[in-house]
Amino acid sequence: MKELIASFPDQLREALAIFNQSNLKPLPAEVKNVLISGLGGSGIGGSIVSELCSESASLPVIVTKDYELPAWVSPNTLVIISSYSGNTEETLTVMHAAIAKKAIIVCVTSGGEVLKTATENGFDALVIPGGNPPRACLGYSLTQLCGILDYYKITSGLLEQIRTSIDLLETNSALIMLEAEAIGRSVAFSLPVIYTTSGYEGIAIRFRQQLNENAKMLCWHHVVPEMNHNELVGWVEKSPKIAALFFRNADEFYRTSKRMEICQEIISGYAGKTLLVESKGNTKLERMIYWIHLGDWISWFCSVERNVDSMEIQVINRLKGELSALK
Asked: 12 and 107: one domain?
């Protein structure tokens, strides 16, 4: 896992080359909305892109992480099927339902049933390298999603921001490693609680998932201002095992920024420790990618400190094995 995390900037660079070699067909109909279907490491890119699009796209870009296809999907919906293995059963179920609805379908996958179905039906498929854990290949899938949306003019400039993000990561690589090691060793035996602002929840989810899978840690996350209306009331007693991590950056709305400051002050009186995790970058996507890389390294340092195998996912394999017998 260490080598896979270290190669993230190169992965982004390769992913750009993959997209640049693609040959997407023109849209057969006007697109009125976009649905991204994907789960886990294949789906988190969709969550991140959806948040980007909420501020910049003229169309709704929605993510589904279930078996069900939303009822509003139509021949004017662009459905992006994102499955690294190509065999994610929930995503395949959505894909077949989208075919029945005659939606416009584009796939991002390394192979499997998704690629087979796309080939049989003449759908565009962006093929990314396979053979690694999906969570370690976010750079491939995120870049393809950005490329698809840029290509169809649903967004503009996302691929260029991917390019500038590579420079950002490489310029700050030493700083990222130092901060990640310090945070990882600090929270490895804590119960992390991740707080960020609305619009960056995908980053909190990504970090939570990496702690779950790489470090075998339970944790949770919430966003401000929503948590001010519920979860904040739960902070009423000393919780020395909890480490509260506040992900903050320079583009916070001024009232949200003040809320974060107040929350951090309140929670510091109850949590075992509180940590500030700041972003770098000139654009929202750059800041997101910076946090993704930093969070991945933190999760790896946690796995080292806890002496666990960051690649092992036996419990997920058990679940898949038992589900395979279900008809």
From this structure: yes
CB 283 within 8 A of CB 164: yes
Q: Are residues 113 and 240 in the same domain?
A: no
- Which residues lie across from 278 on neighbouring strands? 248
Q: Are residues 39 and 176 in the same domain?
A: no
**Using one digit for the tens of pLDDT, what is the confidence trace for 134-175?**
888 899 999 999 999 999 999 999 999 999 999 999 999 999
Considering the candidates 229, 237, 322, 327, report the single residue annotated as catalytic.
Answer: 229
- pLDDT exceeds 70 at position 327: no
Res 135: pLDDT: 85
Residue 273 falls inside a structural domain = yes
pLDDT by residue (tens digit) across 247-296? 999 889 999 999 999 999 999 999 999 999 999 999 999 999 999 999 99
Which SS3 state, helix, strand or coil, does residue 147 take? helix
- Is residue 158 within 8 A of residue 146, CB to CB? The reply is yes
The total number of structural domains in the chain stands at 2
The residue from 90, 113, 201, 213 that is catalytic is 213
Domain shared by 118 and 64, yes or no:
yes
Name residue 78's beta-bridge partners. Answer: 34, 104
Taking CA atoms, 312 is separated from 9, 216, 236, in Å, by 24, 9, 36
Range of the domain at 225: 172-306
- Which is nearest to 109 in space by CA: 117, 98, 97, 120? 117
CATH number at residue 80: 3.40.50.10490
What is the average pLDDT across 218-237?
Answer: 96
The 10s digit of each residue's pLDDT in 104-140 is 999 999 999 999 999 999 999 999 998 888 888 899 9
pTM over 0.85: yes
Q: pLDDT tens-digit profile of 28-38?
A: 999 999 999 99
Please indicate, yes or no, if residue 41 is contained in any of the structural domains.
yes
- Indicate which residue of 32, 238, 258, 320 is catalytic: 320
221 is catalytic: no
320 is catalytic: yes
Do 178 and 158 have their domain in common? no
In terms of domains, do 178 and 248 share one? yes
Is there a catalytic annotation at residue 68? no
